[in-house]
Amino acid sequence: MLLKRRNRFSVFSSKINTSSYINSLCNSFRYHDISNVTASGYWGVDFIKKQSHLDPQARKLLQIPSDYIPSLKTGYRFFDLNDLEKAATLFSLCSKGESFKTEIKMKTFHGKAFYARAQGKAIKNEQGNIIGIRGVFQNIEEEKKQELRLQKSLKHTEKQNMWLYQLSHIVSHNLHAHVCNLQLTSKLIDVETLTKDQEELVNSIKSISHRLECTLEHLNTIATLHSTNKKLQYIVVKDLYQEVIQKIKNSNIQQRALYYTEFSEVEVVKYIPAYLKNILFHLIKNSLLNKHPERECEINVFTYEENKKIYLVVKDNGIGLSQNKIDYLLSKTQTGYSYVEDESGLGIFLIKSQVEAMGGTLLIESKLGKGAKFTIQL
């Protein structure tokens, strides 16, 4: 038996006498050892002698009686009817020199079906003529069953997730009208005619309705992002920024601020547009809502590249965050909550989830009274 040594591994030469190769292979202790450990059976066809060969492990996998002699004419019986044409095609191509590696449904001698991982390769003589084919196959029935169970479980989970997202969209849509009515009603109340206790009650209602509106907005964002196109696209950052600013102008957010932008270092990024738009919107929104009462709000938005990584930064001069609050926001044990809307439980969580889903990171740097800086590695 000829062996070629390549990269510390022994591979069988394909330019050999078919019968002597098969016999020596089957008598090899090392071969038997590997065959038993991997539960792989060897098969071969000698075109010169018109003989088929199955090693002991192959006969065991196919549950073939000891007195049964395999042949090309009866080979079809070991393949499932639905994969019979596939087997014939692969055999034909292999006999012409094209190797194959596939998963196929086979049958035992007694008709019990099982999934197998099979591969085959042509055998050539020293003149380069094809004189046979050889290969191995392995029973992967249990592996395939596990794979099918996982696929079924995944489909079930996806179906449940879709139902939950649809439910969140319906709930947020239906409740939004009631929240708007509550806010409008509270605004129509003339607080000057109220007692101090009544005024505090009305202000409490306004605060509650505002927070509820924020929560519904986040729920709607989740549903919208779930249904959007998840394909990466090239995005002109300046154009996306303008869309976000327009969205903020169309909202009821207090928007008086000085904006400073710089996108010349990185003008275009490859990202999911809906994700990046949502991230930028919420960061700028938080900067506006957390502006310092004693100074005009300033917001810096810029991009830069460092060590072949691209970053998007939103920096403000607002009220800032304590280190404990930052640690809490980024804690893996927390579900996350917004920079300003602690009760909503979704603001930073949404941003962090989307950034990490894209393989990036979120860094928060801040001091109380000194503003906050959010750095996104895209």
Automatic annotation (TrEMBL):
Catalytic activities: ATP + protein L-histidine = ADP + protein N-phospho-L-histidine
Enzyme class: transferase
Pfam families registered for this protein in UniProt: HATPase_c
Domain of life: Bacteria
Alphabetized InterPro entries for the sequence: HATPase_C_sf, HATPase_dom, His_kinase_dom, PAS-assoc_C, PAS-like_dom_sf, Sensor_kinase/Photoreceptor, Sig_transdc_His_kin-like_C
PROSITE patterns attached to this UniProt entry: HIS_KIN, PAC
Listed SUPFAM superfamilies: ATPase domain of HSP90 chaperone/DNA topoisomerase II/histidine kinase, PYP-like sensor domain (PAS domain)
Enzyme Commission numbers on file: 2.7.13.3
Keyword terms: Kinase, Phosphoprotein, Transferase
Keyword Kinase assigned: yes
PAC domain: residues covered: 100-152
Record-level Gene Ontology MF annotations: protein histidine kinase activity
Protein name (Swiss-Prot/TrEMBL): histidine kinase
